[in-house]
Amino acid sequence: MIVEDQALLAMELELVLADSGCAVVGCAMDRAGAMVIAERERPDLALVDVNLLDGMTGPLVAQRLVNDFGAAVVFLTANPEQIPEGFAGALGAMSKPVDERTITDVVGFARQFIDHHTVGKIPRRFRVAPWMTQLAPGDGPH
């Protein structure tokens, strides 16, 4: 799932994700749209912009996706200072602009965590959430 208010970036993300074997279940530009897609599709992974059309609602979206749907979340942001303290349950954050390799590597990192509950090699240009650093590589949640 993609939650991004820049339509061109959302389309680019969708193409890169599809090329890496992901099924993109929907794209939303705001909190309400994200919740509609999440309720309907129950995504495993969501790329969520911090600052959406309806304001700084990305962290609220992330918390709901993690807590209510069990999704893994990765933040996207052009303003890293806006990433919420503790990352609101997200695995980490990528700073825009993002390149194809970074997206692919981060999706692979997230897939390993989703599938095996282990922390792999941290991709370049990916800022891992503080709670993830407490897990040694290969460890899952305790």
Which structural traits does this protein have?
40% helix; 6 strands; 5 helices; six-stranded mixed beta sheet; 142 residues; Rossmann fold
Describe the structure.
The protein has 142 residues and is of the alpha/beta class. The chain has one domain: 3-Layer(aba) Sandwich (Rossmann fold). The protein is built from five helices and six strands, in the order βαβαβαββαβα. It has helices at 7-19, 31-41, 58-69, 100-116, 130-133; strands at residues 2-3, 27-28, 45-49, 72-77, 92-95, 126-128. A six-stranded mixed beta sheet has the order 2-1-3-4-5-6, with helices on both faces. β1 (2-3), α1 (7-19) and β2 form a beta-alpha-beta unit. α2 (31-41) runs parallel beside α3. The model has no long low-confidence stretch (mean pLDDT 91).
How is the secondary structure organized here?
Layout: E1 2-3, H1 7-19, E2 27-28, H2 31-41, E3 45-49, H3 58-69, E4 72-77, E5 92-95, H4 100-116, E6 126-128, H5 130-133
Parallel strand pairs: 1-2, 1-3, 3-4, 4-5
Antiparallel strand pairs: 5-6
